[in-house]
Amino acid sequence: MSQETCTLATQLIRGMGSCFKLCACSRQTRCPHPYAIRYRDSTGRQREETGYSTQQSAIERLTKVYNEKINTPRQQADLKREIGKQRFGTYASTWLTRQRHYAPGSVRTVNQVLNNHVLPVLESRRMNTFTSTVVEDFIMSMEERSVGLAAQQNSFDTLKKILLDARRRGGITEDPFDGVIPPEYIPQKITIPTLDEIHALKAVASDGLVVVIDLMSGCGLRNGEAYAANLERMVADDVYRITEQIEGKTRERSRLKHRKPGEFRETPMPCTVRESLLRYEKNHGASTDG
Predict the structure, then answer these.
(1) pLDDT band at residue 4, thresholds of 50, 70 and 90?
(2) Strands 46-52, 265-268: parallel, antiparallel or unpaired by DSSP?
(3) What's the pLDDT tens digit per position in 148-168?
(4) 223 contacts 256 by C-beta, under 8 angstroms
(5) Which pLDDT does position 81 carry in this prediction?
(6) Which three-class secondary structure string do you get for 130-175?
């Protein structure tokens, strides 16, 4: 460190950090090379940044970081350090517990993604060690293991949700996705059945499946929503209210995907769908629970 840099360092408040240049120029205050700074963040980890064109801009950055650190309550600072020290597997488990808006199927899917693709690689890593390089290495590891693109994207999306949650809570200070190119999954083209094909399916389907087909094709219901069909949801002659679904694995009633308990959505109901529901009631009795 040159004499000029040492003089600058003595002007900074103790604990603020240091400001310097990485070059070997004899007159660093006049050379064109950028300034760098070194400091400890609120979690106690040493950081280094460069690219500051002037001494003043470097000092302003150090001052901002220092003020944020000293103004952070001790309890909050301790929490950030505790999060940073946690292992990814532990943090991912507590994160998933906090996702109370997730339906049971979503929880099961996230657990499958974590157990199959993410935890085998990242479970023991400390949260405060995640950087963009670590994330890129994880993507490369999936490519080396010949993980399909759809699974790669699901794994990346899950990892991103967890790490950005940790960053929001202060356990990770840098954006671990800065400059990272995510896996690109292009789904195959969806084939929508024609009206003739729908009629052909209904001609050989059971009475219950006919109702499901009519609700899906006529009102745009998802599989689980159609299987939860009941007459009470016909809130008008031409309106069907969707309030719940039949969960795929457990075959039990559950709330709608991406919605809180008690929330619903309504869809226009063609007369053919209404007639299908009433016909099923006439032949098999009314259904109130799917």
Answers:
(1) very low
(2) unpaired
(3) 999 999 999 999 999 999 999
(4) no
(5) 81
(6) CCHHHHHHHHHHHHHCCCCHHHHHHHHHHHHHHHHHHHHCCCCCCC
Cα distance between residue 125 and residue 24, in whole Å: 37
Cα(156)–Cα(75) distance, integer angstroms: 32
The three-state secondary structure class of 205 is coil
Do residues 138 and 129 make contact, with C-beta atoms less than 8 angstroms apart? no
Between CA 236 and CA 228 the distance in angstroms is 18
Q: Which residue in this structure is represented by tokens 């009629």?
A: 199
Break the chain down into helix, strand, coil percent, rounded to 5: 50, 10, 40
The C-alpha atoms of residue 84 and residue 269 are separated, in whole angstroms, by 52
Q: Are 24 and 48 in contact (CB under 8 A)?
A: no
Q: What backbone torsions phi and psi does residue 254 show, to the nearest 5 degrees?
A: -150, 170
Q: Residue 47: beta bridge partners?
A: 39
Interatomic CA distance for residues 50 and 230, integer angstroms:
64
Name the E strands within the chain: 18-21, 35-40, 46-52, 234-236, 239-242, 245-246, 253-254, 265-268
